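General statements about sequence and structure are easier to judge against a single worked case. For one protein, we set the task of working out the structure tokens from the amino acid sequence alone. The sequence in question and its structure tokens are set out directly beneath this paragraph.
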Amino acid sequence: MSKPVDALEVPETHEAPAQILFRIQKVAADTGLTTRSIRYYEEIGLLEPAARSDGDYRLYDADDLARLHYIKGLRDDAGFSLAEIAQLLEDETARARNRARFRESDDPAERRAIVEDALARVDRQVNTLRAKADRLEAMIAEANARRTHLTEHLAEIEAEAAGDFATAAERHRAAHASGDHRHPGSAHGRSAT
């Protein structure tokens, strides 16, 4: 029994230059994704293999690998959902399609419609990215509030150690007695401890 090959070279034809195609196991190893994830991305339309082998194995080209790295980066590094990634990928695909249509058309009305479609897609991308940035800013603000709360506790502990326990403890009790259980900078009034 022969060992399966991870990559196949497709010979050059008059229609297309030679290219190397990779089997799913090699793609998974190169991208850090599981074969199951790659198949799932195909099922939901995020990816389409470049070809199939005679044995019906999925085969991927360099563009597929780049797309998978992009998907993984959006998912893992930027925290986008698969639905958001699908929309971003669709907008990028439409952008390439619009660019080709724009170059081929001499009709001002058609060119205007193409540019308006492109603008709407870019606006949607900006809104998606801005919403993500806003969520991240809120998370940073909450983390900073927790940090402030903890540094206040640290200051109290240091004051205790310096013999200024009464003053630190009184400040803490006074804050809690006044019903102000929040600490400065806390976004939701929750105590981090």
Q: What stands out?
A: The domain at 7-77 is CATH 1.10.1660.10 (Multidrug-efflux Transporter Regulator; Chain: A; Domain 2). Residues 108-161 form the longest helix (54 residues). The first strand starts at residue 7 and ends at 10. The radius of gyration is 28 Å.
